[in-house]
Fold N-acetylglucosaminyltransferas-like protein.
Amino acid sequence: MTPPRLFASASLKLSALISDWTPFGLVASYFIFSTCLYMYCSDGLIAIFWFIYMCTNFYIAGATVLEAFMSIAPCREARKIVTQAEEKGWLFPTAHSQLLILDLLIVAYLPNEKDIIMDRAIYALEQIDYPRDKIRITILYNTPKSIEPLETELHRLMDRYSHARVIKVPNSTSKADNLNYFFTLDSGSDLIAIYDCDHYPHPNGPRWAVERFCADPDIDIVQGRCVIFNSRDSFLTSMIAVEFDKIYAVSHPGRATMWGFGLFCGSNGYWRTSLLRDLKMDGSMLTEDIDSALRAFSRGSNTVHDLNVTSYELAPTTFPAFWKQRLRWAQGWAQASMKHAKMVYNKPHDPLHLNYNRSFTARFGVLSLLLIREASYYLVTQYTCLVLSFVITKFPKSAEELWKLVYFQYPVSQWLFIISIICLIATLWITNQVKSEFVSRKMIIIFSIQYPFYLVLSATIGLYGHARQVVRYSSWNPTARN
């Protein structure tokens, strides 16, 4: 290699190294500067900051427990429907001949998912209980290099199963590219279901989703419940499993009831084909699924969360894989929040929903979901820095002094802290009532004990996502599966 090329190659590597490590430097500087600043603040300023952060914590805990209580009704309704179906010998309301035509997409990013794609494809083709003349299961994949004999085996599935279709997407580098390519094909379906490759859809999941569309023509999107099935692989996966139960069985249906809108979450989601073909996926967004969900909501589309539409997925088994996944989500949410925060105040306009006008409740829900949630990362980490400054300047000599230092610096803190703890316990109690078969009560108790540390970690990841957005980090890093 000639000297100019060597210099150019070295420059590119140095530039990539700086781009990768600049977010870390920004976040580290943020924590150091904030902690040092509190060390030099007067007692009066410290009291003001303390009160603000405790009130913020109280708001977050209160909103969370309200969502939890609002989720009780959808959970009861879902159980009631299952009981009725069981009493009728699992005879669904809609006759087979009247069911909608469904395209079920299994989206794979190879080589990351080369070890699981065949297993998931065969499972879906053999186990999903839906009339085969009404469903087409498409394995939609891309790969930068040929992977044999895997690719040949995948394409042979079309010879074994009449409802199978395997498509290798050319020139694709992301999930969005795969999906947008499929949207250019005329499949003639009424609905499109999207699944990541690591999912096992419940055999009756598609039928439950289609029944919702058949029962209510105003529904545009049905988002199902995602359950972590490898909860016993490690401590990390057990905590993620509890988190997913809290999110999908409590927070999502509760928020939809409280604020009046639901969200497509990327997998185990069912769309009316016409809507999804019109919106497509924005490949410039790291979380193209959240972006598409918010664009759908902005034009008045109706998304519902159905707890009976269940799918089982893998959680990352190592902390580096978890870190990489959550950083991508954090930066993607930051992108989506910046892009769609205008829904708090703007007037919706869509030719298909001329009479749609966003209610005050929905607007406040958007404010809470996008802006307050993003701001909470700073409030949680600032509180952490404030406590750290106390530990440095007023180092406790016993556990009792540390306890008082962290939570009971001022009288009002006692009430705010106690109420916040009650809210947390109530939320986790409700989560325990709807936990999946892969989550134990012991896991929920452990999750509740380490919850403060989880909040700090989540907030730090959120800050890291913001820092990546500042430096325009744009790599789409898929999670490795095996």
About this structure: The mean pLDDT is 87. Strands lie at 102-109, 135-142, 164-168, 191-196, 200-201, 221-228, 269-272, 303-313.
